[in-house]
Amino acid sequence: xxxxxxxxxxxxxxxxxxxxxxxxxxxxxxxxxxxxxxxxxxxxxxxxxxxxxxxxxxxxxxxxxxxxxxxxxxxxxxxxxxxxxxxxxxxxxxxxxxxxxxxxxxxxxxxxxxxxxxxxxxxxxxxxxxxxxxxxxxxxxxxxxxxxxxxxxxxxxxxxxxxxxxxxxxxxxxxxxxxxxxxxxxxxxxxxxxxxxxxxxxxxxxxxxxxxxxxxxxxxxxxxxxxxxxxxxxxxxxxxxxxxxxxxxxxxxxxxxxxxxxxxxxxxxxxxxxxxxxxxxxxxxxxxxxxxxxxxxxxxxxxxxxxxxxxxxxxxxxxxxxxxxxxxxxxxxxxxxxxxxxxxxxxxxxxxxxxxxxxxxxxxxxxxxxxxxxxxxxxxxxxxxxxxxxxxxxxxxxxxxxxxxxxxxxxxxxxxxxxxxxxxxxxxxxxxxxxxxxxxxxxxxxxxxx
Length: 450
What we know:
By secondary structure, the protein is of the alpha/beta class. The protein has helices at residues 8-16, 19-25, 28-32, 65-75, 91-98, 139-157, 167-174, 188-196, 198-212, 229-243, 261-272, 276-279, 294-300, 307-318, 340-356, 365-381, 384-399, 406-421, 425-443; strands spanning 48-49, 79-85, 104-113, 131-137, 178-181, 217-221, 246-249. It contains 19 helices and seven strands. Helix 4 links the parallel strand 1 (48-49) and strand 2.
């Protein structure tokens, strides 16, 4: 090992010198050296992402709600909107993942409206033909209206994956409780701009304003690095200025991080029922559809002053806690001084005594252990009220058989028997399925034949 200490005479001399003299004898480099300055991280730019898909946009989004929340927190986003295609399927998991983290949650959806009277199903098409409309709910009332509108459209469509949205019905349903974004390149305004030019895009924008109101319509700017993105955004900003509406910057994210790009491309090819080679021309060349920080969005949209700030303002206006819209259940057990878990446990134990005998009787130990376990799970998940509602509903149907068809009445009777018997939920599910099959075969003998 190399010895780097000074020669012995010099070291001894230095040790015997007074402290002041020792300082003067120190090398000049040691006296003049300054500690390296560490660059302070730039403060995050406040930003709310208003357009994001999860894997509940089936075969389109490549990240689950929890993964998106985790990445949004890492990026320092103030709020995040979940805007899956034609449904609110992921909002519960989204809200649960974000609860207590400080990330604001926004509920929305990207709706597919018909083009020339029809909508191409997303499955089986590389570039499905539809007119997209991004809707953001303004709090609880907006969420309720959006949920109702989606439910009606899904029922009207008559089959899975074919919701029948009506532009006029959506306009009526909004009642000023939504923000409406012009959307991605398949939105009405960008679509008209690309295919027919600025005049057609202006007409499409006026149509949105007439339907939803000037304050509710926002021109959406996206930038995935495609050749036409900047030119399209320039034209959209001009259109917004002409009609006096605001514009916002979004990512139109389809996954949390760029590393999910390959998975997203594979999912898109599967959805289109094409190979990756066949779908290549329609897929992004790189992971540009991932969530971005406010600072990165600020760099991308520096040409459009106020776009990032407007996104934040809109996001703050839409943030709400989904737990606040939980349905108000009847006050079960209040008259008896019991809460819902206690009432459910009492009813279940009464049924269990009738079916298995009192607790501690010989031979029924396993049944009571299972009952205690499942009641504990129900209480932990907060589902006691649901089971009490199910019991009340089945009891009411049995009390008035005229309200239900004969087969349904028989099924309700069996359901009531099982609910009162205290049997386990797994056994309940199996026996209820058998009861349903029996009721169906009685009312329609051909139903059980294959």
